[in-house]
Specification:
This protein has 107 residues and is an alpha+beta fold. 26% of the residues lie in helices and 28% in strands. It has one domain. The protein contains four helices and five strands.
Length: 107
Amino acid sequence: MKQAGIYVNDIFCGILTEDEEGFHFVYGKDYLARPGAVPVSPTMPLQEQAYEKEIMFPVFDGLIPEGWLLDIASSSWKIDPRDRMSLLIACCKDCIGNISVKPLSHE
């Protein structure tokens, strides 16, 4: 299982998880209670229930580099280009736009 913290405008908003069943995203309770909280995507409005999908959610998949930049990232970090979650965690800590992704510490 792989997990990452998702941030909107540098504010923690939820957790993205990949497991054997697919991908799951859940907004944090503190974020949902925050005045002015915005969703990560219009297709994923703020809600307490988890979003579930067999493949990576488009809003997060779109953050991953493409083309020659994907080739460089994949070879530099030795990540299979089909391992979307590992690429997301490795490449998307400081993206253009308001979403960023950080690995969760399991200590």
